[in-house]
Amino acid sequence: MEWIAKALERVRKRKPLVQNITNFVVMNTTANALLALGASPVMAHARDELEDMLRIADSLVVNIGTLDEHWIPSMEKAVKIASELKKPTVLDPVGAGATKLRTETALRLLEIGDITILRGNFGEIAALLGEHGRTRGVDSATYEEDKAKELALTAAREFNTVVAVTGPVDYVSDGKGVYAVYNGNEMLGRVTGTGCMVTAITGAFAAVEEPLKAAVSALAIFGIAAEKACEEAKYPGSFHVKLYDWLYRIDEELIIERAKVRKVEP
Amino acid sequence: MEWIAKALERVRKRKPLVQNITNFVVMNTTANALLALGASPVMAHARDELEDMLRIADSLVVNIGTLDEHWIPSMEKAVKIASELKKPTVLDPVGAGATKLRTETALRLLEIGDITILRGNFGEIAALLGEHGRTRGVDSATYEEDKAKELALTAAREFNTVVAVTGPVDYVSDGKGVYAVYNGNEMLGRVTGTGCMVTAITGAFAAVEEPLKAAVSALAIFGIAAEKACEEAKYPGSFHVKLYDWLYRIDEELIIERAKVRKVEP
Amino acid sequence: MEWIAKALERVRKRKPLVQNITNFVVMNTTANALLALGASPVMAHARDELEDMLRIADSLVVNIGTLDEHWIPSMEKAVKIASELKKPTVLDPVGAGATKLRTETALRLLEIGDITILRGNFGEIAALLGEHGRTRGVDSATYEEDKAKELALTAAREFNTVVAVTGPVDYVSDGKGVYAVYNGNEMLGRVTGTGCMVTAITGAFAAVEEPLKAAVSALAIFGIAAEKACEEAKYPGSFHVKLYDWLYRIDEELIIERAKVRKVEP
Questions:
Q1: How far is C219 from chain A (nearest CA, A)?
Q2: Which residue of B208, C159, C184, C218 sits 20 to 30 Å from the alpha carbon of B111, by its own alpha carbon?
Q3: C93-145 residue pLDDT tens
Q4: Which own/partner pairs from A208-211 qualify as long-range (CB within 8 Å, at least 24 positions apart)?
Q5: d(Cα B176, Cα B226) in Å, to the nearest integer?
Q6: How far is the C-alpha of C205 from the C-alpha of B77, rounded, in Å?
Q7: pLDDT digits over C72-87, tens only?
Q8: CB contact A85 to B (< 8 Å)
Q9: Which residue of B has its CA nearest to A102?
Q10: Run of H or E including A164
């Protein structure tokens, strides 16, 4: 697990500037997650400034959680520019499967540019694959562990990108290998936007590490931070606060001790 | 007060999906209040996805706190669809009385669809009734206890809905009976969006209980959580954190012990 | 430093209503900072209600952190109306220098109305002065202490307003005198929107004190609150919570004991 610690070290050293087009619910919390970890967030969505901002950014995160007709063109433009500039791009298809607009928007973003990493829950990724995934709101999905691994692998091949399917166990695949990440805990489901926070910090790792390892590193580190936070605080308000504390405190020693990451057979 | 505990039990068992069109200031905090309590929040406002989202939602919450010309049509469309689909709908007329735009928008939403519960402070509800209520910003109002009960009753009859007028004592009426809720404390006025949080969780209760009792349950439970939070934390930052903790921790025993709810003469 | 304590006393007594047009990332946190301090926040941006809202407001804060083509006209209209109504106006040119859109928007706002106080970091204010300031995202800048004082003074003369250049040491000038504020600490850089919070509470002070002293008071008080918060909590999540606690708790005694404010030679 040393490579995960090394990835974190690089984030803290280089402080990548992560440009986010994300949803209104989590703008504050994802910025704080990035800052606590040691990266540098910026939030900009005006079409007239996207190119300027992406030129100085190290990566792009697009999250469709509160999309609308004004924001979708910004997302599309940002993904195109980032592709041209070869900036790593992470997509969070929040609520895909819940509404057609979300499913179609996410699919279009996958088509028009180079998405480096796609992170969603089981229902969202399944919906994108045209399966019968039914997203219940945006915070859960019918997770089936035996199918999650397969889903990550299939989606990675289909969309030609790294895919992270998150749930009780997270599966990450680049279409060839598959990693399973066992870190995290259930309290994450009691705080809004924790999935979006993982996506945001995935953007930081994508700026300093190759995509497959970047996604795994983000998930393991976020999961460990959540475990430590829950040891200190058993209720959601306090847990949420401690989560930032541990994104700041997590270090090589803790990663080596706690990371539960395994390469599994595809 | 057993029925309040039963209502909470139903929220936790059924985990109603509450669709919110709310203001930018409180999107994160109202989602967290719903999650802490045990409900499931979703925030969507794009007109093209409202019908899809409302079909899977159990109730709708509309809060006009940062309304504008792009969001008002979404609010209107959502209220109409929810009415057609017979989904309980809660309206928070934030800042009615402070500007004409807010007063008129709230009144239009009351006209075009079936609002199940209207929750506002004294000044907001008074403004909607055409009285001389002058809302000072959005966080207070000239509360007059002897008039608050009457206001709830009159507004409920006028708008043919359940009305909750919140303040030091909350009054809730369906136009026939009136309940007074004495829970809560002053620290709630030092954290932004606590009124919006009550409105949001009212949406959760409206999905599992009849309107009058739903509104009373939400107010009593939120008030008790605030009292417990304040016993643990006397300053606003820490109090805010503990508020989520207690929305999660509150249980039947605490409700029976603490709820101060009385049916009063109309 | 007694005048700083007096300014805070006036904020708490008069509870100025501060109208904010700010960015999505910090709407919640700036409202909470104002409430914790004892002021009264309101957030409204619809062009159709700006005049109504500004008539009852005591000051205006404009922050361009997530500007776009829909919000810029609101910012412009608000600044114009506030000027006509002679309401003190504080401008935070978030990210000026990072993109042309931000630099140009901030400059236009400075032209079309009376900005009472301009608060930004070194890179932002330098960019507005047409220097080679390069803003890295929105949370930092190439701060050079020996130049910061001069920058505040020059910008104050150029824009004919009070300018606060914040950094490890903050410099505030009205074009004649210069104050240096040494309060604050590095943990502020690990929580998003702390600069925006200072701007917001500057709006509260601007409603009750003349501009130069208002800006200095806000910076000193916020800095002291941050110092106290950091004594109680060494990590960013917990620190953030305690920051609100100390904005609420700070009093005359603490200000007298801790304020490090000096009038320096221009």
A1: 22
A2: B208
A3: 999 999 999 999 999 999 999 999 999 999 999 999 985 444 444 444 566 77
A4: A208/A7, A208/A10, A208/A11, A208/A14, A208/A16, A208/A58, A209/A7, A209/A10, A211/A88, A211/A116, A211/A117, A211/A161, A211/A162, A211/A174
A5: 29
A6: 41
A7: 999 999 999 999 999 9
A8: no
A9: B49
A10: strand A162-166
**Whole-angstrom distance, CA of residue C67 vs CA of residue C78:** 14
Residue tagged 């805010």 (tokens)? B240
Q: What are phi and psi of A7, to 5 degrees?
A: -60, -45
- Quick one: tokens of B178? 């009136």
Residue A227 is predicted with a pLDDT of 98
Query: What is the overall mean pLDDT for chain B?
Result: 95
At which residue do the structure tokens 């700036």 appear?
A: C30
- pLDDT confidence of B143, banded at 50, 70, 90? low
> Measured at the alpha carbon of residue C8, what is the angle toward residues C6 and C10, in degrees to the nearest 5?
70
Please state, as a whole number, how many other Cβ atoms lie within 10 Å of the Cβ of residue C56: 15
> Per the CB < 8 Å rule, is B190 touching C248?
yes
C73: its two tokens: 């006209």
**Beta-strand runs (E) in B81-237:** 89-92, 117-121, 162-166, 170-173, 178-181
Q: What is the DSSP string of A60-90?
A: EEEE-TT--TTHHHHHHHHHHHHHHHT--EE
Q: Which residues of B touch A101 (CB under 8 A)?
A: 46, 48-49, 52
Using a 10 angstrom Cβ sphere, with 0-12 exposed, 13-18 middle and 19 or more buried, the burial of residue B185 is middle
Which class for B143: exposed (0-12), middle (13-18), buried (19 or more C-beta within 10 A)?
A: middle
pLDDT tens digits along B166-179 = 999 999 999 999 99
Section B140-158 average pLDDT: 83
Look-up of token digits 């609150």: C225
Q: Is the pLDDT of residue B138 over 50?
A: no
Ramachandran sector of residue C184 (left: φ over 0; alpha: ψ -120 to 50; beta: rest): left
Which two structure tokens, joined as six digits, stand for B212?
């009058």
Q: Which residue's entry shows tokens 């008074």?
A: B126
CB atoms within 10 A of CB C215: 32
Q: What is the pLDDT of residues B197-215, one digit of tens each?
A: 999 999 999 999 999 999 9
The CA distance from A104 to A194, in Å, is 23
For C82-226, where are the E strands, in sequence order?
89-92, 117-121, 162-166, 170-173, 178-181
Give the domain extent around C127.
2-264
Would you call A257 exposed, middle or buried from its count of C-beta atoms within 10 A (0-12, 13-18, 19+)?
exposed
Look at A237 and B249 and tell me if their CB atoms are within 8 Å: no
Dig out the tokens for A121 from the structure.
């829950």
CA–CA separation, A248 and C237 (whole Å): 9
Distance from CA of B174 to the nearest CA of C (A): 30
Q: Residue C30 and residue C19: Cα distance in Å, rounded?
A: 11
Residues contacting B107, CB < 8 A, separation 6+: B128
How many domains does chain C contain in total? 1
> C108: which 2 tokens?
């236009």
Residue B73 CA to residue A41 CA, distance in Å, equals: 32
Partners of residue A27 in chain C, C-beta under 8 Å: 24-25, 66
CA distance B189 to B186: 6
Q: What is the four-CA torsion angle of B116, B119, B124, B127, rounded to 10 degrees?
A: 30
Cα-Cα-Cα-Cα dihedral sign, residues C236, C240, C245, C247: positive
- In Å, how far from its chain's centre is CA C127? 17
Nearest-by-Cβ selection for A53 from C23, C98, C140: C98
**ipTM > 0.90 (yes/no):** yes
Q: Is pLDDT at A219 greater than 70 in this prediction?
A: yes
Instruction: Tell me the CATH number at C25.
Output: 3.40.1190.20
Q: What is the mean pLDDT of residues A228-249?
A: 98
What is the DSSP secondary-structure string of B87-133? --EEEE-TTBTTBHHHHHHHHHHHHHS--SEEEEEHHHHHHHTTS--
